[in-house]
Design brief:
By secondary structure, this protein is mainly alpha-helical. Helix content is about 65%, strand content about 0%. It has helices at about 15-25, 35-45, 55-130, 145-155, 160-170, 210-225, 225-235. It is rod-shaped, with a radius of gyration of 51 Å.
Length: about 240
């Protein structure tokens, strides 16, 4: 079967009728859209749907509808692709923004942590620099519990005093002459043996300041701080 070309109209029933009607209208005396020569040339180059056998009309219509469907499908695919690309672009931008914000938050958190660390270190240095040495206290014949505690407050860093006090309360109830008859432990911290405190001063038996100096050094050296020693004491009931 030979291929038929239909020009000048979209192949659909309504369009075909319109096209045929336009030709009939010209033949009936209607106003032509172009001069006679142009019309004759166009008419000579056009195959009207009415001139095509019925079977072939169906083939032509089917082919045209298929082309229209293909065009619509292509347009839909293009639109879907464009939409997907736009969604991907927006998501990529959103992800990039989230990563940037996360990085900024991490940097800010690190900056704050570093600032807090420095502030703590400075506070600790200031606290240590403000404490008094045992030698700065005048020796007395005896000391009350309140006097011993006042000395400790001036010698132990403020942020460590409560932990230090907790241990002394449990070990000697702030009695700088406390002696354990069975073990020989002695003084505020119940050093065992008691003469170990001589490393802080020869007057370790009678001067609570010397005992406090030794106890603070012992706790710092073995547990890092009085609070470290107190944590160990709570878990073991000794330090």
């Amino acid at each position: 079967m030979s291929r038929i070309s239909v020009r000048g109209f979209a192949v659909a029933s309504a369009t075909a009728v319109t096209t045929v009607g336009a030709v009939v209208g010209v033949a009936a005396g209607g106003t032509p859209a172009a001069d006679d020569n142009n019309f004759e040339a166009a008419a000579a180059d056009t195959t009207l749907l009415a001139d095509i056998p019925a079977g072939q009309q169906a083939q032509v219509q089917t082919a045209s509808l298929t082309q229209q469907a293909d065009a619509q499908a292509s347009a839909a695919d293009a639109a879907a692709k464009k939409s997907a690309e736009e969604s991907a672009r927006l998501q990529a931008a959103k992800d990039a923004k989230s990563k940037k914000q996360a990085a900024e938050d991490r940097i800010e958190a690190e900056r704050k942590a570093e600032a807090e660390k420095k502030e703590k270190e400075e506070s600790e240095r200031a606290s240590r620099s403000s404490v008094r040495d045992a030698s700065s206290f005048a020796a007395q014949g005896s000391y009350t519990v309140a006097q011993v505690q006042a000395m400790a407050r001036q010698m132990v860093p403020a942020d460590q005093f409560q932990c230090f006090s907790n241990i002394v309360n449990h070990e000697s109830t702030w009695n700088y002459r406390a002696t354990n008859p069975s073990s020989g432990a002695y003084g505020l911290m119940q050093a065992l043996p008691g003469h170990k405190m001589s490393s802080a001063g020869a007057d370790w038996q009678t001067n609570p300041a010397t005992q406090i100096k030794w106890g603070l050094s012992y706790m710092d050296g073995r547990y890092g701080s009085p609070c470290g020693a107190w944590s160990f004491w709570q878990a073991n009931n000794w330090y």
